[in-house]
Amino acid sequence: MKSATLDDRRRLVMPPECPAGSAVTIQELDETTWVIKRQMPSRKFKVVLLTDVKRLPDDPEWEKVEHAFAKHASQTLPEPKE
Question: pLDDT grade, residue 1 (50/70/90)?
């Protein structure tokens, strides 16, 4: 996409494929070069549907890992205000 069009307020006029109000990032490469990139929503997610799970099986090894996660997270929390 190339654009050399400015409006009367020196704003860049984007092509019709980029609707008004679109999220963009602007990166300055040098004094006369700018890269404008339209930000698209992330599609890097997956959904996993589980059948009716009432209780997960006991796993002592995984519980040690969970405990380590919780211990680390609790150390990063601020002290509560009284």
Answer: very low
